[in-house]
Amino acid sequence: MSTLDAIILGAGLSGLATAFNLQDAGLRVLVLDRRPCPGGRIVSERIGGFLMEHGPTSMTGPAPATDALVARLGMADLRIDREAGLRNRYLLRNGAIHRFALHPLHFFTSNVLSPLGRLRLLIEPFVPPLDHDESVADFVRRRLGREWLEYVFDPLVGGLHAGDPERLSMSALLPRLKGLERRFGSLTRGILKARQTSKEIPGSRHLFSFQEGLATLPQALALALKGRLRMGVMVDGVRPGPSGGYLVMGQKGGETTRWWTPNVVVALPSYAAARVLESFASGPVQALETIPHPPLAVVFLGYRSEDVGHPLDGFGYLAPGIEHRPALGMLFSSTLFPGRAPEGHVALTAFVGGVRQPDLACLTATELEAAIVREASVLLNIKAAPVLVRTRFWPRGLPQYEMGHGARVEAVRRVETDHPGLFVTGNYLAGVSTSTCIEQAHSTAQRVLLGMRSVMSRSECQRIAQFG
Ligand SMILES: Cc1cc2nc3c(=O)[nH]c(=O)nc-3n(C[C@H](O)[C@H](O)[C@H](O)COP(=O)(O)OP(=O)(O)OC[C@H]3O[C@@H](n4cnc5c(N)ncnc54)[C@H](O)[C@@H]3O)c2cc1C
Question: What is the pLDDT of residue 459?
């Protein structure tokens, strides 16, 4: 008999949040991860007063599951919000960066679009809606024209998702915008309506982090799960157990260990989940294997403030593919959140690679850093060398929600219906953001509890609490 109720594979945010929710409900859990430290793609590092985020930089809200988790962990005091009043973003065009704000009417007055491109917005409400899915590029060309694709959506999708709008599915990647077209027949009408009711522009959400970076969250989760984490365990496979439940096989230091458990939650990146679930039906495994993860690199730069000519008065800049620059974009990290650079210094974070330029994310650190330092000097009028440079390579960065992604997710989800007690969660299912991972973890934990209640006796059920 196993003394465990559930084994969670992966100690990234998805796995840790699922495990925490299950532990909170009274379950005996165990989390396995191949790395020495928990957190997965969330890696914050402080060096000499600079705080670097080698993976995600900020979380988005309002997100009820995230807010509840932060409160439950007693971390509300550690949370820091985006600098108040920060509105500007920059867009690279014709070799220079131009200020804009993320609102259709501001695009109308700013010079990031040509007069013709701006006038095209007036036609948008009269473009007939289309019901079926299409690529982000086809959607934007149809509704707003080529210039909006090249200078607004391509840099957004490149900078935030490291993706190519020609290949990405509108319904899977930007369901809220597709929904506005469906509901209101037009994006501009929908956005103006949404603004009347919630004062919020779809897509422009509240950004926050923690004083010592985003890694504070997985660290707090790991602390709460103390004794329930096994780091350095490479999971090789999951198999149905001979008399129900599942057998999890893992390697640590050359030794194979096996665990038996009635419930397994696979919270691994899709390519790793495919390998681990190889012995199950080929449909879900194939779907997991075919989700691309192009390489990404993150280059952190620290400068003396006096050497930087640009005021860095915004979130950062995004670079459209058509401009052929080495970075997808650069965040003005020390403007975005306080405490990211020591007194008299500023911090920048550049993102490189993705579907657009995968080769650049495979250069050596020296080559890449030289290219990014040059780029920052030109665009931000920087006169001297950085005082700190660090690069982190992600050979498989973010999952791409390409055309057909909806069908792939359905196929993956079938593993849960076909194999009671086996669950999947992660950033390839409903959105890549950290807040969506937490939301998914919450609903995954609820499915585990529901499954357990259906097979447990009344007295056993009392051990398991409800959670909101
Ligand atoms: C460069 C970058 C910038 C980003 N920026 C943002 C941002 O600003 N805001 C935002 O909200 N999101 C951002 N994201 C996305 C977000 O960070 C991720 O989607 C999220 O952290 C994924 O969490 P996860 O737990 O699903 O996966 P992961 O973090 O990938 O965790 C999976 C875990 O599984 C483990 N694992 C893999 N294979 C095995 C195996 N065989 N056995 C055992 N363990 C295994 C790994 O070691 C890892 O710990 C960014 C991502 C990247 C890469």
Answer: 61
